[in-house]
Amino acid sequence: MLLRTIFALLGTIALSGTIHAGVLTSLLSIESASGRVGASVDLAVLLDNGSGDLQGWSFGVCHDPASLTLTALLAGSTALSVNNGEPASFLQLSEEPGGYTAGVVVCLTGCANLPIGNGYELTVGSYTIDGAVGTTTDVCPCSTLGSPSVATVLVIGGSSAPASLACGTVEAIPLPLEVQFVRGDANDDGAVDIGDGIWMLAELFLQGTSLDCQAAKDANFDGGFNTADPITILNYQFIAGPPPAAPFPFCGSGGVGADCQERESCAGAAPAQ
To answer: For strand 40-49 and strand 68-75, is the pairing parallel, antiparallel, or unpaired?
Structure first.
């Protein structure tokens, strides 16, 4: 009720603005994303404002609770700076079953507005993906949430202005294929020895042959392939340094797959126990 009262009040105070009646010159859209089931994705609500100087806005964002769970809701960068570098005078975000609502009045005394421009970030919702692998679900602007329902409108000169609306989508993608490899076996010959250290140094510094599977070459398991990895191999071989990280010395996956094709040395190998 407070939100309705405030937007009604805006209709009685003289603030600057231009209304383009009957023409959809603004676009309210929601970003799209993809991720694995159980992963989190962030979807921003963006506004391309071509209508005029905005005094405020309200909208709902609806999703399918069977496919997504809203886990966090934040004001966007525009809502946090629109009032002469400060947050909007009135900024209300409310989680609702099946989505959320947002209501903004830029400045209750008419001291600021949102000018014409593109890419304004109004809100950011974080969602956990619950849908089945391979499915895509919509996240859409809507005017059905809240009690009373919060309408999706822009406000110029105390009156509502229309906007085009565009949904976002979230796709549930499969987990990457897990490929068997031996960590430290850079040359894929089935053993970890001085040959792998030389292979790594040649690849890094002499434009030597490069095989796929960064994980196999990441001997120290620090997330990258660099000089530290051949040093790890040579230290292990000759001065009792620590061994390469798991799955060394066996074939294993370690959850890796995105950059690895099947390794000949591990073809048909059972996962390490």
So the answer is: unpaired
Strand partners, 123: 45, 75
Instruction: For the chain, give every domain's residue range.
Output: 2-173, 194-266
The CATH code of the domain at 2-173 is 2.60.40.680
Looking at this protein, which amino acid is placed at residue 272? A
Q: What is the pLDDT of residues 97-144, one digit of tens each?
A: 999 999 999 999 999 999 999 999 999 999 999 999 999 999 999 999
Amino acid at 7: F
